[in-house]
Design a protein that fits this description.
Number of helices: 4
Number of strands: 3
Shape: elongated
Radius of gyration: 24 Å
Strand content: 15-25%
Structural class: alpha+beta
C-alpha cells in the first residue's frame, strides 16, 4: 500500500484532545511490516502528538457480521426493496406513535 493512501486513510480520524480531523501533512510514516503500519500523528491545532499502530489490509473485502440465520438472510435477499413510499409511511406512523408496543401488538389495553 502506498504511503499517501495510508495518510489519506488517517484523515478520517480525529485528534483525541481537540477533535480536529488530521490532515495528510499531520501524519508521519515510521514504517510497516506487511499490514502493520507505524505512524505518528501530530495535531496542528493543539500540538498533541500520538504514536499509532494500525493494521491496514489492502484488497480485502470485510466479512459482513450479522446475527441473522441463513434462512433470514435468504428471506431478506428475496424480499421487495424498501421504497420511498414505505419510508414516508413509516415516518407518518412514527410521528404519531406513542411508544406503546404492547397495545400495538395486541397485548395491551385498547
Amino acid at each position: 500500500m502506498k504511503e499517501n493512501l495510508v495518510k489519506r486513510l488517517m484523515t478520517s480520524t480525529k485528534c483525541n484532545v481537540c477533535g480536529r480531523h488530521y490532515q495528510a501533512e499531520d501524519i508521519g510514516i515510521l514504517g510497516h511490516e506487511d499490514e502493520l503500519w507505524f505512524l505518528t500523528a501530530a495535531c496542528a491545532a493543539c500540538d498533541a502528538e500520538y504514536l499509532v499502530a494500525a493494521v491496514i489490509m489492502e484488497d480485502r473485502q470485510p466479512k459482513a457480521l450479522a446475527d441473522l440465520s441463513d434462512v433470514e438472510i435468504v428471506w431478506l435477499e428475496d424480499g421487495d426493496a424498501v421504497t420511498v413510499d414505505d419510508l414516508a409511511d413509516m415516518r407518518d406512523f412514527l410521528r404519531d406513535f406513542d411508544g406503546d408496543f404492547a397495545r400495538l401488538f395486541g397485548r395491551g389495553k385498547a
